[in-house]
Amino acid sequence: MVKFCTKTSLFIFPKTSCHQLQTQSFIPFSVRQEHKNILESRLVSILHGCAHINQAKQVHAHIVRKGLDQCCYVLTKLLRTLTKLDVPMGSYPRLVFQQVEYPNPFLWTALIRGYALQGPLMESVLLYNSMRRRGTGPVSFTFTALFKACSAALDVNLGTQVHAQTILVGGFGSDLYVGNTLIDMYVKCGCLDCGRRVFDEMLDRDVISWTSLIVAYAKSGNIEAASELFDGLPTKDMVAWTAMVTGYAQNAKPREALEAFERMQAAGVKTDEVTLVGVISACAQLGAAKYANWVRDVAEQSGLGPTSNVVVGSALIDMYAKCGSVEDAYKVFEKMEEKNVYSYSSMIVGFAMHGLADAALELFNGMVKTETKPNRVTFIGVLTACSHAGMVEKGKQLFAMMQDCYGVAPADDHYACMVDLLGRAGRLEEALNLVKLMPMNPHGAVWGALLGSCRIHGNPDIAWIAASHLFELEPNNIGNYILLSNIYASAGMWDDVSKIRKLMRAKGLKKNPGCSWVEGKKGIIHEFFAGDMSHPKTREIKQALEDLLDGLKYLGYQPKLSCVAYDISDEEKKRLLMSHSEKLALAFGLLTSAGCTIRIVKNLRICEDCHSVMCGASQITGREIVVRDNMRFHHFRNGTCSCGNFW
Fold it and tell me: Which is it for the CA torsion 398, 404, 408, 409, positive or negative?
């Protein structure tokens, strides 16, 4: 054997070479060929292990010395190795290729693939044209390399032309690998219909074919089409199930995500980290404690518990916080063996949304003492905590420290937090000036924070400034029109209310109904809509609510009629207030969950009247009530709320 040294490794080649084989007499051709094949295989194996260009060059020198400089098999591996090592195609690899008199399709493809990966893309196309002119036919890898390059460049026009070549050349209609790559190209270029046509015309499909389209439909928001495809999939593996679970979660269909996960468990399909994060996200959206504990048990049984898995642990922190149990979230955080910026940020945001500003700031201070550097989400958490607690000066101090101390440039979301902080504190002019000084164009969340603050402090003038920008940025967001209308109504500006409602009708906008859901026995979720009396227990719910309101009147409760932004009679306003969805959910919770904490989730902001009723109900029933609206959590205990009436 002959030893062959490099900087970082020791290669050993067989002593017998092709040259030696040529000089020896009376060796049968079959034996020579066998020795040659062994040498080629050994060289390919060595090239596979090369980690530096110098190693590849030394192997290339050995290839030439052994008379294999025209061997397309070995040289193809050399070009792929040089591509892997990021050696520019236009220099060394191109020279290697040009030395070969009769390159085969695989050698052509190796160079085409190198340009497809490194660029320029058109060079790979020109090489393909040269290959065709020289009478060399492409192989499936030729087309897949070009399709992947078109995907990366989002060049669907070029991709369509390459697609046409597969048809003109012929023989690739039944190639599964080409078909899957073609679907992927069309999907990534935003041509989902074309991808579906390729799928429908494929003679053979595998789970990758199906899953690619399922994921694409889910990402585009067409979860119905994704579900239909999934149901037709003959064999459903973990990737396909995960695509559906995460697809439902990403499309705000948490119940369907949980149902899919239950079916996945029943089918005995293994769960991985990605699946768990998807179903944990669904639990967080739904806010149901029963499902939260069940998913955590599944994670533990799968060997992906929060103690040892930082990704799952961080997701569970977020889930428990959004399910109203910040205590359980903190228990998970404390037990985690490894904590990263996502773990800290999830916990800080969790404290913030529950109004625990001191805990959020204390954890932030502890975080910066470690080697964990805060990121943009961390600062959204601490600024939100300051906003919900009215800690204006502390929030301003943190905002000023972001760039100087931690290298985090304030983004528009951070400005939205600051506008919210100043606005909630009644400093509306200062908030408006901050918006005007922003180094980027304010997005909807910034103007939305200002508009919401104007509702709290009854400032219709600044409200109109904020709303006029929102009407341009979010012309079909009905919430902005309703909020401005309510501000005008509270100020008694009924003519302006009529103008806004007329504008809403002209745009064909319809108000999203208030919706609340509460967890009943055995974890069943019961949903209530404002004014909807279709629940099977409607009669009992209505009676329980009337009894509760009668009891509250002895404590001085008076309905806050200003919460009804309609110019109608007081009696009619009282009737509308009584049918708010969160009151119906509360009455159902009082009827069905004796002694337990009542947890309610609402899709909109809780109104002042319902907030007052929740406070009173917690006092006269002795029950804890947790309400999660679209702004934050409210913990009602013994007649008071964790928000301190500041929300």
Answer: positive
